[in-house]
Known about the structure:
The protein has 307 residues and is of the alpha/beta class. Strands 1, 2, 3, 4, 6, 7, 8, 9, 12 and 13 form a ten-stranded mixed β-sheet that branches.
Amino acid sequence: MLKYSKVAGLVVFVFLFAMCNQKSKNETDKETILKGSIDITVDETIKPIVEDQVAVFEGTYYGSKISITPKSESELINDLLNERTKVVVTSRNLTKEELARFKKSKIQPRVTPFATDAIAFISNKSNNDTLIALKTVIDFMQGKTDPRFDGLVFDNPNSSTVRYMKDLAKVKELPAKGVFSFKTNDEVIKFVSENDGMIGVVGVNWLSQPSPNMAEVVKNINVLSVKGLNSNKYYSPTQNDLAELKYPLARDLFIINCQGYTGLGMGLASFMSGDIGQRIVLKSGLLPVRTPGRKLSIRKEIIKDKE
C-alpha cells in the first residue's frame, strides 16, 4: 500500500511539473508589442525600407520575430480584406469602401503613416536626356506615341506603381503596345540598364537602397527629373524636393494593423513612426513623417581635451 502511495505521488508530481512547464511556455510564447512572432505582408515596391525597419526592431527586441512576405498592392489589399493577413505595409491608405467593409466585420484598422516615398522614372545611362515631363508619360499611357522613347516598363500589372499611374492618366487599362511589365523592381532596373529607349517606372526606395547584387546595375541607369502637370520646372525624387512638395510623384507610406489586440503589429507601427524608425527612414533616402530631433550641447567656454 505504501509502495502504491509513493508511485501515485510521483505521478501527481510529474503531472504538476509538466503543467507548470506548459504554463510557463504559454506565457513565454504569448505575443506582446515587443515579443512573439508575426507575418506581415509588404508592398513589393517598398520592401527595402521595411526590411531595414524589421532588422533593427528584431535586433533591439530579441524576443520578436517578424516574417516579411512581399506582394503586389492588389494582392496585399485582397489578403487584408479577406483576413489572410493582419498587418500590411502599403503605399496608400484604405478607401472608404474598404473601411466600410472592415466596419461591417467589426474590425477597426489602425493606420500609421511613417514615410513619404516617390515613384521614379529611370532610363538607360546612354540616354543624355535626363528630363521628362509627366504629361509625356500620361499621353503615352493614353495611347499616344512619343519619338523620345520606345516604351514604359513596370514591375507588375497589379502593383502600386501601375495603379498610381493609371489613376493619373485616368485610364482603366494599360495600352496594349509599348508597355511592358515584369515581376519585381529589380527586373525593371536590370532591363532598362540593358535596353536604350525604355523608361522604367519603379519605387525610388529600390534606387536609394539597392541590394548588393544590384549596386553595379543601378550605376547604369539615370534617374530622371520630372516636370509636373502644373509646373515649369523639373524636380528629382530627393528628400529635399519631397519635403518641399515639389516632386510630382510623391506618395505616403502606411502600416495598417488589423490584429484587433495589443500585439506585435502595434509595437512595429510605434517603432517605425518613432524616433529610431524615423532615423532609419531618413538614412534610407526617403522622407520621414517627422524629422528626428537632434540634441545640441552648448558650452559657455572652450575646454581643451586632455592629450
